[in-house]
Amino acid sequence: MGMTGGFDLHSNSHGGRGVWTDIIKVIKKTEVLDSNFKNSFVRKVTDGATTSFWHDAWCGDGTRLKDKFARLFALDYFNECKVKDIGHMVNGFWVGTWSWRISPWGRALDELNSLTNILNSTILSTNGCDKWCYDVSGTFKVKSLTKVIESSLLSKHNLSSHHKWNS
Fold first, then answer.
1. CA-to-CA distance for 68 and 87, rounded, in angstroms?
2. Is residue 167 part of a domain?
3. In the prediction, which pLDDT does 8 show?
4. How far is Cα 40 from Cα 145, in angstroms, rounded to an integer?
5. Do 125 and 47 belong together in one domain?
6. Is the pLDDT of residue 21 over 60?
7. Which of 4, 53, 9, 48 is nearest to 30 (CA)?
8. What is the average pLDDT across 38-61?
9. Which of 60, 73, 79, 140 has the fewest other C-beta atoms within 10 Å?
10. Structural domain includes residue 22
């Protein structure tokens, strides 16, 4: 049986991309997943070249910035930008290169102050690439990921006990 939910658990049939790429694709395609499963994957931003500033949950508490700062998202002329396109770190502080439709004022200015505080506590580097990471208590364990996948994705398929990972 090797196929489960549209990806092959046992082979690397995708030209070198592998099972992790398939798992991430399934996560993105599946709207209703256990929140513990979705929250187990975090975006680690290094240079900000492939991470969407507004659409990916990459800093702070894991909430997408467009949801947390809706006024600013609406004001941003280029709200499809990557992290690297909208700012960078200078001496440990975030310097934004914003493109506002109109200058933030009132509550939007309060949001900008809050956003800047979050960004100042985020560490970015120019060394390396952005990537998705599995993060449960800071340590990757195959057993814990297996349990989350089995309970979140495979429990609905009623697989018998002889269908185990790596069998």
1. 18
2. no
3. 45
4. 9
5. yes
6. yes
7. 4
8. 84
9. 140
10. yes
Q: Are residues 148 and 84 in the same domain?
A: no
The residue whose two tokens read 């800071």 is 138
Distance CA 116, CA 87 (A): 11
Decide: 83 and 122 in contact? Cβ < 8 Å.
no
Q: Which two tokens stand for residue 12?
A: 């690397």
- 124/46 same-domain check: yes
Domain total in the chain: 2
Let me know if residue 1 belongs to a domain: yes
Query: What pLDDT is stored for residue 157 in this prediction?
Result: 53
Q: How many angstroms separate the CA atoms of 130 and 56, rounded?
A: 12
What is the three-state SS of 45-69? Answer: CCCCCCCECCCCCCCCCCCCHHHHC
Contact 73/54 with Cβ under 8 angstroms? yes
In a domain, 12, yes or no: no
Task: Report the percent of the chain where pLDDT is more than 70.
Answer: 62
45 plus 114 within the same structural domain: yes
Structural domain that includes position 112: 41-129
**How far apart are the C-alpha atoms of 60 and 129, rounded to whole Å?**
19
Quote the CA–CA distance of 129 and 20 in Å, as a whole number: 16
